[in-house]
Amino acid sequence: MSAGLVTLDDIRAAAGRVRPYVRRTPILATAGGLTLKCENLQPGGAFKIRGACNMLAQLSPAARAAGVITYSSGNHGQAVALAAARLGARAVVVMPETAPQVKVDGVRRWGGDVIMAGTTLFHRQARAEQEAASRGLTMVPPFDHAWIVAGAGTLGLELLEDCAHLTTVYVPVGGGGLLSGVAAALKQMRPSVRVIGVEPDGAASMLASRAAGQPVTLAATASIADGLLAGRPGDLTFAHMRAYVDDLVTVPDADIEAAVRWVFAEARLVVEPSGAVSVAAARRDGAGKGALAILSGGNVDAAAFARYIV
Known about the structure:
This protein has 310 residues and is of the alpha/beta class. It has helices at 8-18, 49-56, 61-66, 75-87, 101-109, 121-135, 146-162, 177-189, 205-212, 235-244, 253-267, 273-285, 302-309, and strands at 27-29, 35-38, 68-71, 91-95, 113-116, 138-139, 168-172, 194-200, 247-251, 291-295.
């Protein structure tokens, strides 16, 4: 494989680092046979705690003492704030002005300082880079970093250990960190497992990038899956996609909303739209026994969730 990709040893080392801070989330089988990996039950409500803890655990004591910063639509910001609290660091999170209040409140609950900046990934990234330079903070990228990808890959190790008959895994895709880590783990241990990345119709930057042969930036994004609106995959995550991912598909908002409702009805779980795109694709495919959908997060505004499930 290409140089620079995360190795199985990287992922196994990450598993040892994050074990004190993350949950081994349950795997639930539904009546139709589709299996759910419940990362919505992680501390902070999303898989992002895996990458955040793996990165902060590798920083020097001096870097942690100086503080960390990230830019996030919500779930990664909460994970960094939580990881910082657990590992004795100060965290600053730059969030979009359109971030759901439940995610802003989540960052503050874990002691993170919030800065609101613009509406796109590029607005908040620019502000975070400015703050990092002026305040001596260490950047914790939301997806395009080997330590973040390796942390996400620990989820893939769990899938292989807990699902003996796994054939297909559906993975939500925003910037591509989760897809990269999970695919790297699965394909290096059990290449026969199909890995399918799922994007919202209105934010399919990884699919557009694959068609172009390189990472591209979408002119605009729009979806109820607010955590998947990166608009551009990372260079590293794009490389992992090309090396390890079998297919990329998209789903419309109507199917995503129906998937949120279905997960609540079938498993009595609260999942946010970004975390339900995997279920939307799996249901469209008629996926059953041997197929698994990752529920990547559960941080959803209560009023919005109530609308989705009626």
